Amino acid sequence: MKKKVIVGISGASGASLAIHCLDILKQANVETHLIITKPAQMTIAYETDYKLDDVKAKADFVHNNTDVGALCASGTFKSDGMIIVPCSMKTLGEVSCGICGNLLTRSADVVLKERRKLVMVVRETPFNLSHIRNMETITLMGGVICPPVPAFYTNPKTIDELNYQISARSVESLDLGIDIPNIKRWKQDD
Ligand SMILES: Cc1cc2nc3c(=O)[nH]c(=O)nc-3n(C[C@H](O)[C@H](O)[C@H](O)COP(=O)(O)O)c2cc1C
User: Fold this and answer.
1) For the CA atoms of the chain, what is the radius of gyration?
2) If you placed Cys at 106, which of 16, 21, 91, 100 could pair as Cys (CB 3.0 to 4.6 Å)?
3) Counting atoms of ligand 1 from 1, which one is nearest the CA of 43?
């Protein structure tokens, strides 16, 4: 049976990470259910060369963020998890308090209540205390806080390479048991 993952793109900086994640999941034959917030449409336009429709075309299914009646709004939709990439402080805050005002936050809430895997690629710097407390709450609920922090020891030569490595490690945090090509792992010299 095909794995199913919900991919939420919120309006934090780092839209290209979402594009890499969608590519990685497609390559691994994972069925993707994509939700894009309004602010994320702005970051996609500012930060990437992609048209919104080209990003949507990378997913198997695209759900409107206002459609709180979509499949992934219900616990009966058996997903293998959800990744929010990038995850804004607004979305982090809403999910940590159980506010389900749109499909993205409702889906994350459902994933947590069903004890499935939620990976949040939270992007902000520096953090204030409410960000830190919200990340703690998500962690206590079983979610994975996975900020887009580069592994500098991989010596990335381009920003795209660096973004790929960050995205690959984020998808790996979903624990899907899929093969992700070209992850650079730490190797100690002999
Ligand atoms: C270009 C741009 C970059 C942004 N970067 C961030 C960011 O890195 N982190 C963040 O929390 N918010 C960031 N924001 C602000 C969010 O988009 C804003 O808080 C929005 O309400 C988030 O809504 P959403 O979570 O529903 O997408 C950025 C906004 C823009 C336009």
Assistant:
1) 16
2) 100
3) 1
Q: Which atom of ligand 1 is nearest to the CA of 91?
A: 25
Compute the distance from residue 177 Cα to the ligand 1 centre, in Å: 31
**Domains of the chain (ranges, CATH numbers):** 4-172 (3.40.50.1950)
- Pairing mode of beta strands 61-63, 31-36: parallel
> What is the C-alpha separation between 48 and 50, in angstroms, rounded?
5
pLDDT digits (tens, 9 = 90+) for 95-152: 999 999 999 999 999 999 999 999 999 999 999 999 999 999 999 999 999 999 999 9
Spatial neighbors of 108 by CB under 8 A, at least 6 apart, are: 8, 82, 84, 91, 95, 118, 120
Cα 102 → chain centroid = 16
Joined tokens for residue 156:
């990335």
Please give the model's pTM, rounded to 2 decimal places: 0.98
- Cis link prior to 39 (omega < 30° from 0)? no
- Model pLDDT for residues 23-67, shown as the tens digit of each residue: 999 999 999 999 999 999 999 999 999 999 999 999 999 999 999
Atom 9, ligand 1: which residue's CA is nearest? 12
Provide the residue count of the chain: 190
Nearest Cα to 117, choosing from 96, 97, 90, 145?
145
